[in-house]
Amino acid sequence: MVHLPSDRTDYLRAPAAKREYNELLFTEVAKRYDLVTRALSLGRDQAWKRVLIDSLPASRDPVCVDLACGTGDVSFALAHRYPEGTVCGVDLTPEMLQIAQARNRFPNVTLQLGDMHHLPFPSDSIDIVTGSYALRNAPSLTVALQEIHRVLRPGGTAAFLDFSKSPDRLLQRLSFAVLYLWGSFWGLVLHRQPAVYRQIPLALSRPHNAPPRPVRRGIHRGLQPEVLLRNLGDHHCEQACPSTGAFSPCLISHDGQSMPN
Asked: Residue 148: which CATH number?
């Protein structure tokens, strides 16, 4: 059994440390990932992913990339939505990809070991990029967004699903407390380590997730949806994101069409 740091947050600050932590974490949880994702979302995980897929544009044969694909739920949903398209699921953890590969029944899905900081695709080559619970795990959100922006074709779409962060501070604290305790419970039950799933509320409550000041290149380190939407480059963006707290989905979509002047 892999032993993870308890309540330390230093691994959230340094990209190299967070990448190493992610590898340890998802190696440990791979076999129980689907169970715990449904548990932590109070059974809403699959419904949220359907909303993500339904939000994507109609297209006959898009080239799709699913970041942090895990056990393959969204990759397979993309393949079903776009049977004439191609889908590449990318994940950092071999154990996750082994499970996804065993489940793969789609001839248009490939699975690849990779890092969202160094995507193995040419610039301007991808029509659709998705990620469910991916952005919060990026070692450097700035670098990840730059890579996503690089590989997207003009007019392409990026859509991300994650827990939202309420603008109401009291509701924030309540949501984080519930998620902290609920995650600790499942960490103890499944891994005998309460700390395993505490990284979710810890990541959401970090100060860099507050709306930051604008920077010149327009890429930010926050997980606030309006900030990501505003700063994925000079492009048109839309969102569907309830702001009711940590148990609500945050769906962020980025349409690569340039904004009108």
From this structure: 3.40.50.150
Residue type at 240?
A: A
pTM of the model: 0.76
**What DSSP designation does 10 have?**
G
Bridge partners, residue 112, by sequence? 90
Smallest Cα–Cα separation from 246: which of 204, 190, 188?
204
Q: Residue 239, Cβ neighbours under 10 Å: how many?
A: 16
The burial class, CB within 10 Å (0-12 / 13-18 / 19+), for 42 is exposed
Q: Which residues are paired to 86 by β-bridges?
A: 63
Percent of the chain topping pLDDT 90: 30
pLDDT class of 107 with cuts at 50, 70, 90:
very high
Closest CA to 46 of 9, 15, 76, 19: 76
Residue 105 in tokens = 């029944």
Domain span including residue 78: 10-167+200-258
Number of domains in the chain: 1
